[in-house]
Amino acid sequence: MDKTVNNKAWFLVLPVLVVVAFSAVIPLMTVVNYSVNDTFGNNDFFWAGLEWFEEAVTSDRIHAALGRQILFSSIILAIEVPLGIYIALNMPKQGVWSSLCLVLMALPLLIPFNVVGTIWQIFGRGDIGLLGHTLAAVGIDYNYTNDPLDAWATIIVMDVWHWTSLVALLCYAGLQSIPNAFYQAAKIDQASRWKVFRYIELPKMQGVLLIAVLLRFMDSFMIYTEPFVVTGGGPGNSTTFLSIDLVKQAVGQFDLGPAAAFSIMYFLVILLVSWVFYTVMTNLEKAEGK
Amino acid sequence: MRLRGSALVMVLYILFLLVPIYWLLNMSLKTNTEITSTFTLFPANLTFQNYVVILTDPSWYMGYVNSIIYVVLNTVISITVALPAAYAFSRYSFMGDKHLFFWLLTNRMSPPAVFALPFFQLYSSIGLFDTHIAVALAHCLFNVPLAVWILEGFMRGVPKEIDETAYIDGYSFPRFFIRIFMPLVASGIGVAAFFCFMFSWVELLLSRTLTSVNAKPIAAVMTRTVSASGMDWGVLAAAGVLTIIPGALVIWFVRNYIAKGFALGRV
User: Fold this and answer.
1) What ipTM is given for this predicted complex?
2) Is there a contact between B17 and A24 if contact means CB atoms under 8 Å apart?
3) pTM listed for this prediction
4) Are B39 and B83 contained in the same domain?
5) Which domain holds residue B23?
6) Residue B122 lies inside a defined structural domain of this protein
7) Which tens digit of pLDDT belongs to each residue from A213-247?
8) Which of the 8 DSSP states describes residue A272?
9) Residue A255: C-alpha distances to residues A49, A109, A260 (Å)
10) Are residues B10 and B60 in the same domain?
């Protein structure tokens, strides 16, 4: 749709601007302020320049947390995106079953984050949890509170449980928008199942898939509550992701300066990656609009 | 044959989703002795005692009331400010619109962990700490951009000729917007409200940081009780089950729009 040029539209945007400025810009400026100052309490602040940034850039602890974070987000995307597509392809197309599937699949998305954590914490326990108990019964030595590998496996399965439906629902919506004529044409051409997927379904899902990847990347990169409830960042530091590390530092130890410098860089990383996605997405929309 | 294969995949996947939830429900209907001493797939002595504990103790059930108050406040604020903005983005191009749109989206991307401490200090200094409105405003950080995005997607689908016809018929802008335009995007408003509700409901980090007693959300009440009273598994599980119910109820009404909402109105 071609839009009219009208700068008075700013008045319509103004309320949003005020609300978001209050809840985003002011806090963000506080963070910027902390990041360049040092404090010994009593609200006395001293100029510290870029000291905290240097500290954060060279900190081994943060490097390790960043490494774990990237690994986690990559594993999550590598499992959830293909699985989500696969589930979407197998969903019933219409009728009662399709509604039922939609509702049941959306259920995990609506559970408060810490309840998700609680569910899996209980589910994985060897003494009272179904999963832990069953694994112990078949003779697999599984203990997510002691073994880093088990802790990782638990958190990844939990995230797959929690968010795969999101990818599947998005892909499903993309698939629904393909007219039946496309499939009939493919049938006449005797296209194989794979070719139908590769040349009809996948291109049609491109737009929603990008949104799915963007959302999953953002949310997995700032994941806090679920792993915190299940493992508390442990055993040791093996599941301490960026957000957990940050909250430990800011609220736990009250190291405002380093925590603020760390937050700003954390935010910038997310911003950068999301900007790339966003640009690709809008270009895609433009290309489709032609 | 292919249909059977699909059905099998779906049954397996939905089982995978439901088994952990079933386990929580199962535990909430057991006594603590049964949970810790024996391992049973079904509650042997069905008990609703855990639910009774929650529904009769104000420190528990007020958690639900608090959560619902700030979630509703947040939904109302988000939708009210997002409606005109989404209209502006879908109809007009103006100076800096693309940058503004992306800037809004960045707020959806910002990690709540970054904002927890500044929010705490901001709301403490203006005397709003531990009030429902503080949490509602804090959640606007990610819900307002989301609402703008979703509504903009839906509004794009409404042909512009309708606006023009209304003006020719002598409607003023506010009257046109409320009487004609809002009914046309009613489903979009519903979906946006649902998503605001949902993200405000599931968020814990900010709502926990900004409250202590009077506005404490149920999710935070749960964490506190777990650490304080040893492990009261039955009550914990019952509280968990009760937090799932509101989501399960509202989802039925928007089931056909869920995907469109998640795609930010862009399917």
Assistant:
1) 0.81
2) no
3) 0.84
4) no
5) 1-47
6) yes
7) 888 888 888 888 888 888 877 777 788 888 888 88
8) H
9) 16, 34, 8
10) no
